[in-house]
Amino acid sequence: MTAKRLPKCDCLNHCGDDPWLDKGKARHCDDFKAREKAAALVEIIAWKLPADAMPDDDIVVLGFFDDIEEGEPVWPCLHVDNQWLIADGFPTNPPKAWAPMPGGPRNTPWMIVRSRP
């Protein structure tokens, strides 16, 4: 099993790049563990313009609608037979941009179970 290279830690032992971690002879400090836990909650959303790319039919994506007068500008939606629908099935105008649905936090029990063969 190959250990991933983690960011360098600022503790006195520099546990982020300690080679003894791979051998099980050292442990990460609490500050390093807290930063890794916080990093698992960050996910980058890559928006796409409908003119550049379209999602596969019947796949729920995030749609950005900047012309909404009330409410939130981001909604789950899907593209079916040349028609955009909000995820509850109502027709809508095309979004200004769309993105694949985020996967959720890493290193959670759900993601661990999901990644097993």
Order of helices and strands: HEEEEEH
Proportion of strand residues: 15-25%
Strand order of the largest sheet: 4-3-2-1-5
Query: How many discrete domains?
Result: 2
Instruction: Give the terminus-to-terminus CA distance.
Output: 16 Å
Please tag this protein with its features.
elongated; 2 helices; 18% strand; 5 strands; 14% helix; alpha+beta; 5-stranded antiparallel sheet; 2 domains
Short description:
The protein is of the alpha+beta class and 117 residues long.
Write the layout of secondary structure elements.
Layout: H1 30-39, E1 61-64, E2 74-80, E3 83-86, E4 91-92, E5 97-100, H2 109-114
Antiparallel strand pairs: 1-2, 1-5, 2-3, 3-4
Describe the structure.
- The protein is α+β, with helices and mostly antiparallel strands and 117 residues long.
- The protein has 2 domains: 1-42, no CATH class; 44-101.
- 14% of the residues lie in helices and 18% in strands.
- The chain is built from 2 helices and 5 strands; from the N terminus they run H-E-E-E-E-E-H.
- It has helices at residues 30-39, 109-114; strands at 61-64, 74-80, 83-86, 91-92, 97-100.
- The protein has a 5-stranded antiparallel β-sheet with strand order 4-3-2-1-5, with no helix packed on it.
- The longest helix has 10 residues, at 30-39.
